[in-house]
Amino acid sequence: MGDPPATPTTSASVDASPSVASSSSANIRKERGAIAAQACDTCRSRKQRCDEQRPKCGTCQKFRLECNYREPIPTKKDKTLVEILERLKGLDDRLLSLETKVDGLSHQGGAGPSAQGFPHLQTPEYGNQGNTGMIDPALTAAAYNLQHDSSRNAPVGQDQYKYVSSVHQMLGWPAVQQLFASIQGRLPNVNFSSLERDGVSHMLGVHRPESQGLPSEGTLRSERPSGVLSTLTWDNVRSWSQAYFDTTNLFYPILDRQSFMQETLPTLFRSGFSNSISSTIALLVFALGEVSLEGREGAPVHVYNGRASGVRGGTKAHPPGLALFNEARRRMGFDLTECSLENVQIFALASAYYGSCFYPMDFWRMTASASLAFQALVTSNPGELSSPRADLIRRAFWHCSILETSLNLELGFPLTGLERMENTVGLPTFSGPFCEDDVISNQQSHFQEHFASQIVLRRLLVGFHHALNNTAPMSAQLGGVPTPFSSANNSPGLSQLTIQQLALQLEEWRGMLPPHLRWQEDCPGAFPNTTSDMFGGSSQTPASTPISPSMSHASQPSSLPAVSTPSVPLMFTTDLDSPPAQYPYVLDIQVALLRSRYYYTKYLVHRPFLYKALHYPDSVTQDDALGAAECLKASLKWPVAMSPTCKHKRLVPCMFFFTQNFFGILVLLHLSTTVPLLRRIRSTLCGERFEMDARETVGLYLDWLRDLKPIDAGTAWHWEVVRVIYGLEGA
Question: What share of the chain in percent tops pLDDT 70?
């Protein structure tokens, strides 16, 4: 390896980095970061640099002086984060109150809860609240001569609103099973009868040969184990590292950029890579950095009808960064039992790499290992939560917690017990020293506020899951959240008003977002709001503008008819054939993740209404029909499936989570075109744009599955089913 520069520095722009434009960086206002506020009082009074060591800095140790640190004065960005986290505490209190009331409702039998039971909330206006009668008879099953098994009718309010959190459970609904039975003859290689027993393995393609693990050698068979390390240059490692911190570390803010770039990287480059844990972390960073570069600029893995795949770089067998990742894998065994933050980081980074290569089981196992490593860290050394790295540790905790929740609710993977540490660990504040690159990336992408908002949404989702399952709060359970395999899914307390109250809580979350993260509810692809921020800042945020001025308005599909509402500039588009817009610091993916998870939560909360409409149509009320309409609308046009985000699929975290849900939505949207009651709900309650948006959604989600099927074993199974449902056997 060549020698690094005598004084390596991190710059705001690296030529090889795809996510930073020098032209846009030049005019960015340099907001003062937290680094200056961390100097001790002695160094501050002497106007000299403080090394920020705790409990005493180097100067105070040298001169035996008392060393005191004052709390940093929050910037506008800090105030926004504080406000988000304070509102989180308020929402937690309301969720606890809601869970308590829902638990009491379970003893009231079939009658739905009264609005008087929730004095702090108002009932959402799903319809005329004075009309508690049945839906217009013209909407009932009888009016369409719909064959319905009356033996399935249950007393109103009991078992008619069935909640399940996972797609593979939803596939067990009788209406879905009836659909599958009708197409079984055209799918001789698919065994629908085993879905209830083997749902997860089917959905993930675990038993398919192509789902086997990554090859253990490098990208070339003749490559010697040490070959990749002998060819590293300073430009290589700096480029990979910068690419990692400009992409992956914005989704998973678990590494300190300043420490890594200014200390770890130069030291390793000079002394060489050993079996140390810092070498392992560096190699994982390099591997993910190569994924970031190739995932945006690499060659597509295939082309379909002239449309390049959204999966770029490498192949299924040899993804980008494999040689570097294998070097890290060879060293991970030396660090398996170390109780340290670095131990948590290596598992979390390995999980991110497996996710980019479409290996969901490996992704889960590394995520679980990171969670267990975190518990070992805090249990063996609780003082770390008050150390200078405390905020970084908290970020690692919430990263693991968000992923665990997704894996548990969607796939039924067991929890590790991490959730029991929430109160002990506390919330991150992004305090601590930051380098200039951190400040710039946050100004352009608001990644800290995105992460904080994801934490709030995850807490809400867990609370909703408890309420819909009518189970005790997580903190009261020894086993954590009941998995989708538990018996709590049919709750006699689940009712119309319960679901409506949860929907209102979700709207509170949306209203809580900073203005520059908000968007128009009925336009998932719109730019974030550009009104002035909470504290009187600029009316235009850098995060609202694409790099290329020519792409300031993302292309709107030509099929859109004229509508009466004003046109909205689009950040995301359903036009998958035009060149995608380019945004700095993967802003589009950060925005798409936050919005898509919001729509997912809304869709999940309202899905019990859809179950009732499918299975008990003669009992459907006006509010039930409106709830089913909300579910259908919430399933449409998730931004993660639109351009430009879908053009960089290797960079989308936990991608198979969205693949599962797109498959489930495609099944339900098809049923909504064949079941008369749902067809009427679509045409009368979903709005004038619904049919067009639904067609575009089907096209987006089908394209997502078609694109991934050659390299993801689970998606190949999904595609076999939906191509028959939608008459695409020749595709």
Answer: 71
Per-residue burial over 128-160, b = 16 or more CB atoms within 10 Å of its CB, e = otherwise:
eeeeeeebeeebbbeeeeeebeeeeeeeebbbb
pLDDT (tens digit, 9 = 90+) per residue, 381-438? 999 999 999 999 999 999 999 999 999 998 888 999 999 999 999 999 888 777 889 9
Distance CA(196)–CA(690), nearest Å, equals 32
Displacement of CA 222 from its chain's centroid (Å)? 38
Do residues 322 and 292 touch, judged by C-beta distance below 8 A?
A: no
Contact of 270 with 237, CB cutoff 8 Å: no
What tens digit of pLDDT does each residue of 662-673 get?
Answer: 999 999 999 999
Phi/psi region, residue 11 (left: phi>0; alpha: psi -120 to 50; beta: rest), is: beta
**Integer Cα distance of 518 and 307 in angstroms:** 32
**Cα–Cα distance measured from residue 177 to residue 173, given in angstroms and rounded to the nearest whole number:** 6
Report the distance separating Cα 588 and Cα 26, nearest Å: 21
Residue 560 has what DSSP assignment?
A: P
Cα→Cα distances 217→131, 220, 237, 349, Å: 67, 8, 20, 19
For residues 82-97, one letter each, b for 16 or more C-beta atoms within 10 angstroms of the residue's C-beta and e for the rest, the string is: ebbbebbeebbebbee
- Global confidence as pTM: 0.79
Least confident range from 146-155, 164-173, 357-366, 672-681: namely: 146-155
Question: For the segment 31-66, what is each residue's pLDDT rounded down to a tens digit?
Answer: 333 344 467 888 888 888 888 777 788 888 888 888
Question: CA separation (Å) from 378 to 67, 128, 238?
Answer: 27, 52, 32
Backbone angles phi, psi at 241, to 5 degrees: -65, -45
Asked if residue 584 has a cis previous peptide bond (ω within 30° of 0), the answer is no
Tell me how far apart the alpha carbons of residues 345 and 351 are, in angstroms, rounded to a whole number: 10
CA neighbor of 663 nearest in space, from 730, 725, 617: 725
Round to whole Å and give the CA distance between 132 and 111.
12
What is the Cα–Cα distance from 417 to 563, expressed in whole angstroms?
50
